[in-house]
Amino acid sequence: xxxxxxxxxxxxxxxxxxxxxxxxxxxxxxxxxxxxxxxxxxxxxxxxxxxxxxxxxxxxxxxxxxxxxxxxxxxxxxxxxxxxxxxxxxxxxxxxxxxxxxxxxxxxxxxxxxxxxxxxxxxxxxxxxxxxxxxxxxxxxxxxxxxxxxxxxxxxxxxxxxxxxxxxxxxxxxxxxxxxxxxxxxxxxxxxxxxxxxxxx
Length: 201
Ligand code: GRF
Description:
Strand content: 15-25%
Bound molecules: 5-O-phosphono-beta-D-ribofuranosylamine
Radius of gyration: 16 Å
């Protein structure tokens, strides 16, 4: 399966997908990396892996819809079977969501703590268990159908950074495993239920 991965930051989730796709048996490979900003480590990781990359910055476009359409067109150039948001900090609009299946990952157990500060919000709430979620992207903020989740404990003395690092260790593996299964087994979506399996795709 052909993956286009969208990033906005350090790209450690992207790196995990790049590393996994080095193995033919994984069943998927990163054919391009897209970003909404320049100068991020995620783009350097794409460069080092020899993966084509592109950047579509919102301020370069006369409207949000123009940016959405430009992004969808750049993604389409690479003919993806699956688009993966891996720390992509923009909400995708209809041009992308209607053209591709988009998988996203979030460092909390949705529906708890959606949005850009899920780790900070969980810590502030005082939960003892948080985790990460792999879901399909829809027009909302982290509201799409859930594909996989894994719990991560909050330890005494955790701050946002230590907790996010512990979550990301689990999240990278969950994302790689889930995307690999979707690529190899296919998937179907019925309402809010995502089933992996041959009849999918
Ligand atoms: C990940 O935890 C992702 O879920 C969240 O931001 C982090 C991105 O990390 N949205 P990286 O850029 O993949 O290292």
